[in-house]
Structure formats: structure tokens, C-alpha cells
Amino acid sequence: MLKSLHIKNFTVFSEETLQFGKNVNVIVGENGTGKTHLLKAIYAGLAQSHEHLVEKQKNPRFDGFFDLSGRLNAMLGSETAYSLIRRVKSNQTLTEEDSLKLDYHFSESSRDFSIEINPYEEDEETSDPSEGIIAENPSYYSVTSPPRTSVPKEFVLQQPVYLPTRELLSIYPNFLALFDNSHVPFDASWRDACRLLGNPYRKTLAPPELLDIQKQIEDAIDGVLRLDDSGRFYHTSSIGKIEMHMLAEGWRKLGMIAQLVANGSLTPGCALVWDEPEANLNPRLVKLVAKIITDLSTAGIQVFIATHSLFLLRELHILQKTNSSHLQNRYFGLKREDYGVLVKQGDTMDYVGELAALDEEVIQAERYIDIENGLSPRD
Q: Which CATH code of 2.60.40, 1.10.10, 3.40.50, 3.10.450 fits the domain covering 2-160+270-372?
């Protein structure tokens, strides 16, 4: 289990330490406060550790570089890891004090690892880009050494799962070949998720609690999703077989979870990182998503989500207070300040602080009630 993540000078963040719960971790904040950056940093670390384990299992003598910087670049779509370093202004001179650091701490300390990227500014007139200097406008930047990454003594055992805001079932056919052989405007999270969605179906039954989640989704979407021999997903129900692109987008989004349970990608001990699970879902399905997230965490899956939805937040709160008080959930509120993004955190949604993105839903409800009562709406 990922216990905490210490970040310094990472994209929009100055310095923060996020303490995670073993069940559901919810990140909220307005646009531009780094919610997706945090999710991708979490996933990149877990995925790189697990990938290193897989390589060592294939070849016990494998001693390859623990390329966390490359994984971060692929996840955030940056050309180099140095562009991930926080800058207050575009022409800022970077010094050693501006080093980017990410420290991953687990419940088992033997799995801990970190990365540090330490920049300094070169004189533009004397810098030679052919010698590995990275072009930055208006100056060239280099580093005192390559990104320094510590390798854990033990690695993450289970492949983590990252789901972007968009559903991927309808674009699955040929997407991996396109991604691997062409320059496409998608980050590696799409590739990783598609690889997991295409895994063969498990030969043994999933644990009962996961089978129940799969059934809840299949009942909600009124059918079963299957990957056929042509490499395409179809929705099958009592009325027949439907091509995936003809299925409602909200159903396709839920269907990804059912597929990942069916093929064993979502299993106890892994982590699920899900960006805006409520996107393109109606409130009834958002309510189901809250239950699915809670049930997944109860089944032993550590969940990380980012959301703009007050409805989803409240549903998670209700579930924790009524049926799942034993869960160790954590809530993180991101707010932009002059020096960077401030993180407020705690065990309930009360700790996230005042966020305009959430308050607007409450304010709109009050304005609506005023209008219905014949009053002038409040500002």
C-alpha cells in the first residue's frame, strides 16, 4: 500500500506531503490545481516499480535503469523530466534549491523509492545543444547529473490500473498498434489502460466481492461486455449484440471496470487510479460509481480518484458514514496560492476546505430555491 508521497517543485506544487489511506483517496480542486498531475505521479511510481519486478522475473540478472523519469514523461506528455520542474515565472533562473523531488513511501519501507531532478542554468551564448543541453526559452538548462532515482529493495507486486476521464473501449481496436508505431497526441495512460483491457479473461472466478461489483455494473448497463476474436468489444444482451461505439458513453465507462474485473486486472492488492470517474455519467450512475469505488476498496484495492463532483463526494461520505465506517479514506483539497498549490487533507470531506468548484453547486441550489419561492436569487 502506498502510504505517502512527498513532492517538491513538481509542476504546480511547491512542497507537500500527502498521507494516503488504504481505502479511498479523493482529490478535489479547481482546474489547474494539479489533480491529474498528482494521479499520474502516483501511478507512474507504482507502475515503474511493478514493471521493474516483471523484468527481473523474466531475467533474474536484469539490472536495468529504474527509469522513473521516463515513466513520468510518458504519463504527463512532457518531452523531458526537466520540464516537470515547478517554475513561478517563464524566465526564472533555476538553481539547486529548485530541484524536483518525489519520495514514495509504502506500508513496507523496503518498497520505498524516490527521484530527484537537480537543474542549473547555463549561459545561452556558451551552451552547446549538441552536448545534451536542453533547450528552454529563453535559456538553456542542464543538470548536475542525470535524474537520481533510488531503487527499492522490494517492488510493487500488483500491476496498478490507471483510467483516464475518457472511456477507451470504443477506441480499443488497433489503438495499441497506432500508439506504438505512430506519434499520437495521447499520453501513456491510454496505452497502459488499453493493454489491461485487452488481457485474456481469467480462468478462475474472481473473489465474491469483485464478482458482485461486476454484476452490479452488468445490471446497470443491461448486458455483458465481451472482447471477441476480431479484437473488438461488444455489448451483449437479450436483444442481441451491439457494437461498442453505439453504446452510451456512460455505460462504456462503467464497462471498463467490469472488463478489468473479468480479466483479473483489478484484483486485491492492486491500486486503481481513476481520473474524474463521474464524467459523462448521470446522477444515478454516479451514485453507483460511489458504491463501486467503496466496494473495490473494501475488496482490498487502494483507490485514488480526482473529481469535480460534489454529488460524488457526498455519496462517498454517506457510504462511509452508514455502511463503511471502518474504511480508512482520505480527502485532499487543492487550492492555488501565490507560492504554488496548497494541499489540505484529512479523513473526511470536511478537511478539503472551501473550494469554489464545489461551492458553486450549493450556490446554484440556493438560487434555484429562491426563484421557485418567488424571491430574487442570491448572488
A: 3.40.50
